Amino acid sequence: DQIEKAGYEHFMLKEIYEQPSAIKDTYRGRMLADRGIIRMAGVDDNLEKFLNAKRIIVVACGTSWHAGLVAEYIFEDLARIPVEVEYASEFRYRNPVINKDDVVIAISQSGETADTMAAIKLAKENGAFVFGVCNVVGSSISRETHAGAYTHAGPEIGVASTKAFTTQITILSLIALKLGKAKGSISNTDYHMYLNEMELIPSKIEKALESNKHIIEVAKVYKNAKNCLYLGRGYNFPVALEGALKLKEISYIHAEGYPAAEMKHGPIALIDEQMPVVVIATKKGHYEKVVSNIQEIKSRKGKIIAIVTEGDTSVKNMADHVIEVSETFEALTPLLTTIPLQLFSYHIAVMLGKNVDQPRNLAKSVTVE
Ligand code: AGP
Known about the structure:
Elements: H1 11-17, H2 19-27, E1 31-32, E2 37-38, H3 41-44, H4 47-52, E3 55-60, H5 62-79, E4 83-87, H6 88-91, E5 102-108, H7 114-125, E6 129-134, H8 140-144, E7 147-150, H9 163-183, H10 188-209, H11 212-222, E8 227-232, H12 237-251, E9 254-259, E10 276-281, H13 287-299, E11 303-309, H14 314-318, E12 321-325, H15 334-351
Parallel strand pairs: 3-4, 3-5, 5-6, 6-7, 8-9, 8-10, 10-11, 11-12
Antiparallel strand pairs: 1-2
Bound molecules: 2-deoxy-2-amino glucitol-6-phosphate (AGP).
C-alpha cells in the first residue's frame, strides 16, 4: 500500500499530483503538435459518422458527467456540433429521442457504471453510433461501445475522481479540435495555437500544484464550514459543480455548484458571513460579469475564495483569498482551475480526519442501478 502511494499520504493526493504526467500520457502518440496532427484510431476510422452527426449526446454519471458538460462547451465552440449532456440514469429511464445520425459519447473512468452501460445499450438499440471514453482498459463499457479512446490516466484508486476528470477533458478537447479542423469551423491558425497550448498544460498544472501550501492555509480557515457555494461561468460552470462534488464526497460538507449568474435567482439568499463562496474568476470567460458577482457576495458579507489568473489585481482587492493559476485559452481553463479545488477538498477532508480514499457510502465503480 505504502509503495503504491509512492510516498504520498493518500491515493487521492498522489493522483492529483499525477495529473501533469497523466495528461501527457493521454495525448502522447495522438497529438503531434509540431506537425499539426491529432490521430485517434477510434475517431479516424469513424470520421464520417462524427462529421455527419446532427448532434452529440453525452451520457455519463458523477464526475464523468461534469467532464461531459465541459465537452459540451468545447464541441459547440470549436466543432459547431450541438451537444446534449445527459445523466445516464435519467436518459435510460425516460423515452429519449435517439436518431440514427446521433453520435453518443459515453464517458466512464471505470467503464463499469451500470446506468451508463444501460444508456449505451439503449442508444445502440436505436441505431446510434456509440463512442466510449474510458480509463480502464478492457472494461465492460469499452467492450460494449462501437469505438472509443482510452484516457490512459493510469489506475485511479481514490474514490474521489481527479486525474480521470482532467484526462477525460483532454481527450474530449482533442476530439473537438480534430473535428473542428476537419469541418473548417476553426481556423488553421487557431488549431495550431490550441495544439501548442495543450502541450503547455502539464507544466501549467505543475505550477498550479505549487499553490498547495497556500491552499492548506485557506483550508484551515474553512474546515469547519457547514456549507460552501461554488460559482463559475461558461467553461468553468462544470468546474464549480465538480469542486462542490469533491468537497461533499470526501469531507461531508454540504456544497453546491452553480452557474455564477444564477446566484441572483436563489442561492444569493444563503449568503451571509458564515458562507464561504469559491468563485472561479479567471481572466478569460465573462470576467467582468464574475467580478460583479463577487461584489454582490462581498456586499452580503460572504467569504470569497477566488481562483484567478496569475497577476490579477481587481479580484485580489475584493476576495478574502485568491489562488492563482496560469493564463491559458478559455477552453482549456478547466484543466487548471480544477486543480486548486481538488487540493482544497483534499486538505479539508484530511484536517477533519475523514477517510479520504474511501469515503463512507461510496464505491469506486457503481455497478448497481
Ligand atoms: C467522483 O468523484 C465519483 N466518485 C463518482 O461521481 C464517479 O465519477 C461516477 O460514479 C462515475 O463513475 P465512472 O466514471 O467510473 O463511470
